[in-house]
Amino acid sequence: MTMKSDAGNPVLEVAKGTVIYEQGAPCSTMFLLRSGTVGLYLNYHTPQQFQLFEISRPGSSLGEMGLFEKEPRNATAVALSDCTLVEISHANFPAFIEAHPDETKQMILDLSQRFKMAIVEVKNNQQIIAECLEALKEAQANKKDTLKERIRKISDYLLDIPQDVPPELYLSFNSRFHGTMF
Predict the structure, then answer these.
(1) DSSP at 148
(2) Distance between the two ends of the chain, CA-based, in angstroms?
(3) pLDDT tens for the chain, residues 1 to 182
(4) What CA–CA distance (Å, rounded) separates 129 from 132?
(5) pTM attached to this predicted model
(6) In what order do the strands lie in the sheet with 38-42?
(7) Which residues, at least 6 apart from 114, have a Cβ–Cβ distance to it below 8 Å?
(8) What residue spans define the domains of the chain?
C-alpha cells in the first residue's frame, strides 16, 4: 500500500485481493472509497463465507462503526479491484468534514441506505418466520389429527368401536385389562 494524505488522513493505494480489514479486528478508523471496488464479507475464507455487498461508488464509506463506535470490525473488507481509499481517524474526522462536505453528505446517505436495507431485511425475515411458525402449527395440528385418525382406524379394526365412542377410551380400557396394543 502506498500512502498520500487528505485532510490529515492517509490515502491508501490498495492492490486487488488485499484484505483491508478483518472481521473481529479492533478498530478506530473508517474508509472512504475514491476508486475501485471493495467486497464486504462475513466469515471470510471459511465454509460459512457470505458476501454482504460490494461497494464501488466513489465517495462511499465503509467501516464506520470503527470510527463512531470503536467496536471490533463486524465484517472483512477485501479489495475486489485496485482501490484508492482514504482512512479517516476519529481525530481527523472534523477536518475531513470541513474539507469534504459533499463526501460527508454521501457518507450520511450511505448509512441511511444501509439502515433502510437492514429494516427491509428484518421485515422480510420476520415475515418468513411468521410463515414458518404458521406452517409448523398446521403441521402439528395435522400430525395430531393423523394420530387420532390412526387410533380410530386401529380401534375400529380391532375392537369394532361404535362411532359415537372415542377410540382413546377403548384403547385405555383395553390397555388396563389386556396389556398394550402397541
Answers:
(1) H
(2) 74
(3) 445 888 889 999 999 999 999 999 998 899 999 999 999 999 999 999 999 889 999 989 999 887 788 789 999 999 999 999 999 998 899 999 999 998 889 888 888 988 898 899 899 889 989 888 888 888 777 766 677 777 777 766 666 656 666 666 656 665 555 555 44
(4) 5
(5) 0.67
(6) 19-21, 76-79, 38-42, 50-55
(7) none
(8) 2-99, 101-182
Please give the full DSSP string across 62-83, using - where no structure is assigned: E-HHHHHT-PPPSSEEEESS-E
Would you state the cell numbers that stand for residue 19, as one nine-digit string?
484484505
Q: Which residues of 56-77 are buried (b: 16+ CB within 10 A; e: fewer)?
A: eeebbbbbbebbeeeeebebbb
**Residues comprising the chain, all counted:** 182
Inter-helix orientation angle 101-159/167-178, to 10° = 60
Q: How far apart are alpha carbons 163 and 22 in whole angstroms?
A: 69
Please, which residues have CB within 8 angstroms of residue 55's CB and are 6 or more apart in sequence?
33, 37, 38, 39, 40, 62
pLDDT at 181: 47
Domain covering 2-99 assigned CATH 1.10.287.1120 in the classification: no
CB atoms within 10 A of CB 173: 11
Instruction: Please state, in angstroms and rounded to a whole number, the distance separating the CA atoms of residues 11 and 34.
Output: 9
